[in-house]
Amino acid sequence: MDSITQVRMDMLTRMQQFTSVAQGGAVREALRSEEAQPGSFGVSFEQLIRAVDADQHRASAAQRAVEMGESDDLVGAMVDSQKASVSFSALLQVRNKLSTAFDEILKTPL
Fold it and tell me: Which residue of 6, 15, 54, 56 is surrounded by the most CB atoms within 10 Å?
């Protein structure tokens, strides 16, 4: 499998993860207090943010290497840059969806 195909597969997997987070799953029965995993959503979201941050740093390092003449892989640097851009855009969409859902919850009459 060449590097472009691998990048496409990685991007597809990441977009599917973002889509599933943004859409939410089917309604499930609430967990009992002894079954609940405290911070599991927070931990998942933090991992997502760290992955997007890693993509941003990788793209920045690749661009810097091309600019300094340390690398001739301009296509790879551009692919990393686009991958980081798509990841960040998807993260913003998830954040916006969560913010909208939170606002709706706050507006719900008791």
Answer: 56
Q: How far is CA 89 from CA 9, 37, 84, 94, 95, in A?
A: 18, 29, 9, 9, 10
Domain ranges of the chain: 41-110
Long-range CB pairs of 77-86 (<8 Å, 24+ gap) are: 79/4, 79/7, 80/55, 83/7, 83/10, 83/11, 83/55, 83/59, 84/52, 84/55, 84/56, 84/58, 84/59, 86/11, 86/14, 86/15
Cβ pair 83, 4 in contact under 8 A = no
| pTM exceeding 0.70 | no
pLDDT attached to residue 84: 94
Q: What is the mean pLDDT of residues 33-43?
A: 62
Residue 39 DSSP SS3:
coil
The one-character DSSP state at 32 is P
